[in-house]
Amino acid sequence: MKTKLLLFFSFFLAQTTLVGQSVSLTKATFDVAETISITWTGGSGSGSDWLGIYYVGETPGSDTSAIKWDYISTTNGAIDVENLTRGGFNRPLPAGNYYVALLLNDSYTVSDSFNFTISTAASVSSDKTDYAVNEAVAITYTGGLGLSTDWVAIYDQSVTDPDGSYFEWSYVTSGQEAAGTLTINPTSLPKGNYYAVLLTDDSYTALSNKVNFTVDGGVLSTDKLVVDKVGVYPNPVNTIATVQMKQNFNKVELLDNLGRKVLESKNINKNTYRLDVQDLSSGIYVIRVYGDKVYDSKIIIE
């Protein structure tokens, strides 16, 4: 009788182990690009169980896709998040709050979950919060990974997750890969609301916070322009504007009051150039001259 009871008790424990499902991580907070290992127990072993990574607040379902996911074929096991190959997210998770869910038999029913946070010590800040069109944006960054392929990008604030739709970008400053200040001279930022973010290793994985700023649509005032080396006459003008410098320059651009390029002349290699503006609407424009540096000057077209 004692032997039978022991056998029954052992069978009961085995069944309990199979029924109870759990999923866990080694800790609850990770740095960006740190290895995250998922451990699970109590799977069915059918090959149709799966692990999914979701943002906190999301509920698995046909209308809510996992950021990363994959099937598991064993009752117990472990896998690194980077080895979850489905879901289309093929880079390290950016900073944010997530959970990993264990789901059985191709269902959206969560058997167990574990919340975790991706954090980073990296941060970015801007020298101001409001810029004029064409005004340089100075971004200070700290806490980078020290890679020469880390980069700062500027996005419209409507872009939630960094992708290829950035307006401007620049690699971190050589010799200052982990921390430094870089200046982005924008040529494509019209009036609007933007943010700058530090990204890592030529990817769209964010290392830092997002720092918001606004371009208010006004043309950069003459006291902030480098005008002493550029001569523009007549000014105002209605037909032909002459652009002149003491040195040769290679290219001239004309930008409207929203920062849009309306004229461009290349391969000039002279110190004087005549710019035909008679087909343009009246208003205030910026002439941008590319010599040993980039110089701006205001021009009024009547």
UniProtKB/TrEMBL annotation:
One of its Pfam families is Por_Secre_tail
What species was this sequence derived from?
Polaribacter pectinis
Put simply, this protein is called T9SS type A sorting domain-containing protein
- According to the record, the signal peptide region is 1-20
Q: Which InterPro entries match?
A: Secre_tail (IPR026444)
Using the record's annotation, list all stretches that form the Secretion system C-terminal sorting domain. Answer: 232-301
Tell me if Ribosomal protein is a UniProt keyword of this record: no
The alphabetical list of record keywords is: Signal
